[in-house]
Specification:
The protein is an alpha/beta fold and about 450 residues long. It is about 50% helix and about 15% strand. The chain is built from 17 helices and 13 strands. Strand 1 (about 55-65) and strand 2 (about 70-85) form a beta hairpin. The structure holds NADPH dihydro-nicotinamide-adenine-dinucleotide phosphate (NDP). NADPH dihydro-nicotinamide-adenine-dinucleotide phosphate binds near residues 165, 239 and 369.
Length: about 450
Amino acid sequence: MSYIDDVLAKVIEKNPSEPEFHQAVTEVFESIRPMIEANEEFYKREAILERLTEPDRMIKFRVPWVDDKGQVQVNMGMRVEFNNSIGPYKGGLRFHPSVNQGIIKFLGFEQIFKNSLTGLPIGGGKGGSDFDPKGKSDREVMAFCQSFMSELYKYIGADRDVPAGDIGVGGREIGYLFGQYKKLSGNYEGVLTGKGLSYGGSLARTEATGYGAIYIAEELFKDHGIDIAGKTVVVSGAGNVAIYAIEKAQQLGAKAVTCSDSTGWVYDPEGIDVEALKEIKEVNRARLTEYKKYRPNSEYHEGRGVWQIKCDLAVPCATQNELFLEDAKQLAANGCLAVVEGANMPTTIDATKYLQENGVYFIPGKASNAGGVAVSALEMSQNSERLSWTFEEVDSRLQTIMVDIYHNIDNAAKRYDCEGDYVAGANLAGFEKVLNAMLAQGVC
Ligand code: NDP
């Protein structure tokens, strides 16, 4: 058995019941196979793949808190510090009932390569809890966040590990987490990103992931002689990433016609009304059923279904494994030109392969949603400098970073004889930098 297959088998055996982690490792290993097999004995002696797939550490803790009725509730909290070869651990916190060790490890593992692709000095980490902020009062969310940080603060720091938001963790949660960190540590430092503007946040951080996904889609199209203006875009999700992907697509002259949440989806043939969507989701924290009140000509459907709408560009922005093989077939049959992932690993491996083999350009999340973490790193720079940059400056840096990521992954794919395979290009380019740093720093 080859070295790479042997390590993959061991990862699966040693980490049972973690299918998302197995999926992420399998995808990366398939991409870096040519690089590893060209010098197999060396990498095996250095145990590079074993070191890459075993996190530096996993922290798991109890989060007790008291709800509004006086009842004590207990959730699980965790943080995986995966790899800090190129910089302090960096990656979001996810609060969602589905959170478990396998999901946090898949996200932390992906984060290593994503952060490397940004060209900025940040390592890979991720964390979260099975706490569900939906339906909780602000006071309950605060009680939970304070308890969560009472344990997490021991392990994080501006030069050590800098968490941010993810599903279920937005500005409100980051504010409560930051307040508790400051109280416990006594330090006013850039220990979290996605902070409010009045206490060290960066302009354009809220918009960064969604905008970034559309900037990279624009560059992909440009490189293939296609203009994004006038194109129809289908988006899933109705959270932070989805809202700003829709906004940027519309700003560039495209028409985004769908969005979804975990109960249903909206089709608005005239183009999603972004201001209405922001009011429903960001202000009222309500369900998408509300959208019809703003736009009577739109359609609301229960369940899932956005991928059946004819489009030129599909941008999955909700969660992992939300675009399946049958969806890929539908998209390709409808003439979709490209799938650009806004979420982390939203497309299953068989769906990805189908798209690539059937002429649909495919950009994986670790490249296309890297705008969020890139602007988080810019927030860290601003915090260190004790300065705030303008929206235009941050947005222009974001755009440059996304354009550079596109050309970096495109060139890596060309160098390894798999032109047009942006999954391989992203994994190879992301891995190369981490590998060099790991080798330079010795066995540690
Ligand atoms: P939000 O919590 O703001 O929004 C998530 C959206 O996806 C909501 O509309 C939610 O619906 C929907 N959703 C979540 N889980 C499911 C599910 N199991 N089935 C169907 N719909 C679901 O999260 P973000 O927008 O921040 O994150 C979305 C994705 O983007 C995630 O994969 C995240 O890891 C990734 N990402 C986010 C970054 C960021 O900067 N925020 C950076 C890079 C990646 P509902 O409200 O009904 O649950």
